[in-house]
Amino acid sequence: MECMHVFSAAASSEHLPCNPSNQRDALSPSAGGLPAGRRIRALGTAVAPVVVRSTRRTEHTYYRVSAAAMPSAVIRMPPAAGPHRAGHLNERGNRGVRICCCRVLTCVNLDFFVSKNGILKCFELVLGWFCQTMLVQFGMDSAKDIGEAFWGFLTTCSAFLLTTTILLLCYTISARTFHLVRQSIFEVVYNGLACVMYLSASSYLGFAVNVFLYPKFLMFKTTGGIHSAYPAMTAVYYMGGIVGLVYGVDTFVAYRHLKGFA
């Protein structure tokens, strides 16, 4: 014997198989002491009888329950299956770089680079790379003079430069990763910690450079020599302060996004 419930959602109906024993319990006139129609109407839903014929030529009366009268938590439609699915597909189709009649790099989310978050991440990456390059190229010979300030700034720069590179790569490849990470508290904590560490490391390096390297720079200047470490390290701690401020702005943006203001 064929058994099914009929639910109408908007203009279409969905047929779901059920257990015959459940059908007798739910739809029999004697179940629960009330007829099936009265019991369904007692729930406050709009019902309409539907007759379904089985293979044994017997008639069974079911009830069509309007989805508009049911609680909103009963049926939830995923966003991917909604009316905006076509727009989502068009958005994915517009990714990449168009060359003649085809598109390349469609897996890369290039729109992220022109967004506010993408610009901040690119600034953090470029400025952090500049600081690390200057430290390695001009500061290694003077590391023994600068002391712990040099190694502290180099450690800070290397750690946050690596993490920012990984985040930028993941955000560029997957837009879903960007939305999932930005909805968590990770970006707020990470950017806030990077801001504090860069500002403190820059302050310490600036103090060490002006105390230990500046006298050597004056001595080389009077003798006609060139002391390249002092100008380079001065540029590094100034640039490190700027990177710290950029991370501070990114912290504020991530916090607004976390609280739903952006």
From TrEMBL:
InterPro entries: Marvel, MARVEL-CKLF_proteins. It comes from the Eukaryota. It is found in: Membrane. This is MARVEL domain-containing protein. GO terms for cellular component: membrane. It comes from Anopheles melas. The chain crosses the membrane at residues 150-171, 192-215, 235-255. It is a multi-pass membrane protein. Residues 112-259 form the MARVEL domain. The lineage of its organism: Eukaryota, Metazoa, Ecdysozoa, Arthropoda, Hexapoda. Keywords: Membrane, Transmembrane, Transmembrane helix.
